[in-house]
Amino acid sequence: MEKKKGFIDIIAEKVWKFFSSVKLAVVLLIILAIVSVIGTVIQQNEAPETYLQEYSRTTVDIFEMLGFFDMYHTWWFVLLLFLLTANLTICTLDRFPHTWKIVTAPLKPIEDDGLKAVPFKKEISFKGGMDNAREHAMKVIRARGYRIVESRGADVLHLMTQKGLFSRFGVYITHVSILLIFIGALIGAFFGFKAFLNLPEGEATKVVYLRNEPMWDKLMAAFGIAESPVILSPEAGVPAMPLGYFVRCDSFDVDYYVSPSGMPTGMPSEYHSTLSVFDLNGRKIFDKRIRVNDPLTYQGITFYQSSYGTLPNAHGKVILNIRPKNDPQARGETITFDLGQAIYVPSIDRTIKVLNFEPYALRNPATGEVMLYQSERDEYINPAVQIEVYKGKSPIYKTIVLKTDPGQPDMPENYIISYRGYWGTRYTGLQVTKDPGVWIVYAGFIMLCLGPLVAFFGSHKKLWVRIQDRKGQTVVTVAGSASKNRLGFEREFNKIVEDISA
Amino acid sequence: MESSLLFNIATLSYLVAMVLYISYLAFKKNVIGKAASGVTYLGLVIQTIALLLRWRESYQMDIGRVPLSNLYESLVFFTWSMVLIYVIVEFKYKTRAFGAFVMPVAFLALAFINVSGVSSEITPLVPALKSNWLFYHVMISFLGYAAFGVAFAISMIYLLMDTEERGPAVNLLYALGAIVVLALLGYYMAGLGERMKTAFWMGIGVLILIWFIYLIVAGAKNRPQVFLFWSLCVTLAIGLLAAMAIDFFYLITLKHLAAGESFKKHMFESTFLNSSISIVLVSWAAVMGLFGLVWSQGMRLKNLLKQYMPAQDQLDDVTYRMIAIGWPLLTGGIITGAVWANSAWGTYWGWDPKETWSLITWFIYAIYLHARYVRGWKGTQMAVISAVGFLAVIFTYLGVNLVLSGLHSYGGMN
Ligand code: HEM
């Protein structure tokens, strides 16, 4: 007796069916493709004033309500992604058992009614008896790299073979990869954060400023379960995340491309900061020189070089190097000056006074004349330092040293003074992130690269050869099917049939 | 620079090959077909040498890096990969019939490079772009785009072959009427300021979208609409090519556009955006004439092509194969981009317009891949999706840079 289905069962079945349909997948993908456009047309996450300049008050209000200014994080967009994931999960659960059965099922001899369902088949009459036919067919099929299973009956002999079983899993590898990426992204949103830090040269910090607070902390705090580690100090304005250690910017510098004639172009080629990490007791743990594309990571938190800038009204220190003229290998002596400061250098018995600093200067190599240029955005494109050298109290000469110098600075005595840096007026702009989900996302990426290849370029091919004795006449029936690339398989199939009948 | 000369020769070869492939279809002479293939191979070889030379030149200039990092270089690489894929298809399927459709796209891209005055200077890279991922990212993406380009060309053939009749002439009148109304509205709204212009383009986008969805969902039952879509795609391709060629002669020859000056500001200035109202009218009349011509001669073209074309299911199969090549490559391109962004900024996905558009393109081709499993969606719908996918590719590739703003360095045309 059949059990009557309860209301719940019917609903569950309906829901299951709804979520396992490819039609839903196509509809969701269409909707996602369409709504994603919105956020590319409307600038995302701008300041409210910017929007008011572009749109009218009512438009801004409507867009605000719909979440168009941060569209990819609105509840409805995330819901769409969740629906796609649910669709994907249930579709996979729904179909995988079937695929598993196909893959694990042993090959069965093909009979007349089975033949009807097979897309490719051909009957050949063979001259030379069943054993000869068997021998010949095996040779033809083996030559194509198939491994053969055999079964015998009365007056009938079956050869069966298949290839490319694994290709059936390509779709699952692909689909699971999407799930992994989604899970990894969720873990990142719940347990990771994105922050920034503008750190002046010489300064240290134990907090970074958040762009995204970890969702988990927010939830815990909202339910009163645990306090969020995030510090909301009114004067900073931006929520701060404690690092659990100190980071200090020891120094920061920018390199610029140099033109073929040796002049700096003002186009940055690289910028880098030397960062030191200290524990909370002030003990130094390590340092690293970071560049764009080469970050520092400590305790799961990564610091990326992302920008830089000049501090207003900061007084920098000039760093100069003094070495003997006749010994280019010598490391010399490196001294740090305040602007206007005079320091006695015992090794050369001279007092050096730094007169001023210019961010952008070039020397004409022919005349030796130094020209000053306006530097946009306060970039230190090619700094120049004017110095005066004293013997005792009496000035001997003045000269200008440049960072990159296509000519020669005026150095009458037997030592060379060179420019090493201008320290303490700039800050390094760092992106700081913690993303514990990124490895799951990467695992998903790898699977997403491989899965489609397996799905598209593999094919599960099956071949059957039935050899019958019909009243002394040997009849060979060849049948085959392929899960992919039918046209290609048809060609292979026809060739096999041709070879067997030859 | 010797590489620029070689690139020009390659462009010329593709133009000649395009003419030859089209003549091959028109005159059905085998000699012409062979000549077309020969010229294509020659162009490909020359372009390959040019690419390698350019790479070497960058090392001689001491900025050594892969020739793939600005708009110019990526466009050049795009055409190269597309022609390469086409040559493989021609070889494998032993038919020259696709050439007349693929070579125009290749030439169109190269012509765009020349016309748009996209700077061909080998410029040093900004720090964020100094990464090995850049090479993989750009190369993989462009190979994918090229495969989609071939898929597009074949889908166009499919749609033409699929059409039994072009439908009543009143369809053409409606379409032309719609073009007139929209063009007038566009000029009017653009005159009201930037915001109205944006609103106009968004409106157009929505209309086109609705039409696409209609075509995909109900297209197979309304063949004349599909034929209209086909005519539009072909008109767009030819019209864009012609308009840019005119711009080229007008701006470079007559107005002496300074080398390196951004063409973006001048695009369509010699036609649709000319200061003389009569030239604008003539341009629109020419487009409408072209549309009418394509629409009215489509059937003739079909009859001409019919004897060269493989069976429809084979066209469908080749399209699927091309997308089966292109989609994993696009996936790889998106992933390498994400990994690169993560290593540079600590964020693998930031929803910037370029990223998002590549994802939209990816969604569209994912729709293509799954639509096969939806009952009742067959060849016609698939070909329409493939065409829409390629329109999205073009937008991802150029439109985002020209229209929307974002992180990517190809953004500035100079
Ligand atoms: C972004 C999400 C998705 C991606 C990237 C994706 C990717 C793929 C790929 C690459 C294939 C192979 C296509 C082919 O062999 O031609 C495939 C097949 C398939 N997908 Fe998806 N898919 C996605 C979402 C979904 C969803 C939500 C469903 C839910 C119903 C689904 C159902 C299927 C089915 C039924 C197949 C055919 C399986 C077969 O060949 O037996 N996919 N998918």
State the gist of this model.
The complex is a heterodimer of chains A (502) and B (414). Helix content of chain A is 33%, strand content 36%.
- Placed side by side, the strands forming the largest sheet of chain A appear as 8-7-6-5-4-20-10-9
Radius of gyration of chain A: 38 Å
Radius of gyration of chain B over all CA atoms, rounded: 21 Å
Helical residue percent band of chain A:
25-40%
Characterization of this structure:
Chain A has 502 residues and is α+β, with helices and mostly antiparallel strands. Chain A is 33% helix and 36% strand. Chain A contains eleven helices and 22 strands. Chain A has helices spanning 7-19, 22-41, 48-54, 57-66, 75-104, 112-117, 129-143, 170-191, 215-222, 438-457, 486-501; strands at 120-126, 148-153, 156-163, 193-200, 204-212, 240-258, 264-278, 284-291, 296-298, 301-310, 317-324, 333-338, 342-345, 350-358, 361-363, 370-372, 384-391, 394-402, 415-423, 426-434, 461-470, 473-482. In chain A, the strands form five sheets. Chain A has an eight-stranded antiparallel sheet with strand order 8-7-6-5-4-20-10-9. In chain A, helix 8 packs antiparallel against helix 10 (438-457). In chain A, 27% of the residues are buried. By secondary structure, chain B is mostly helical. Chain B is 76% helix and 0% strand. Chain B has twelve helices and no strands. Chain B has helices spanning 2-27, 30-60, 71-93, 99-115, 132-162, 169-191, 194-218, 223-254, 277-306, 312-345, 353-371, 379-403. In chain B, helix 6 runs antiparallel to helix 9. Chain B starts with a helix and ends in an 11-residue tail after the last helix. The model of chain B is unreliable at 117-122, 257-262 and 405-414 (pLDDT under 50). Chains A and B meet through helix 2, strand 7, strand 10, strand 20 and helix 10 of A and helix 7, helix 10 and helix 11 of B. Bound molecules: protoporphyrin IX containing FE. Protoporphyrin IX containing FE (HEM) sits between chains A (21-22, 25, 84, 87-88, 91, 171, 174-175, 178, 452, 455-456) and B (366, 369-370, 373).
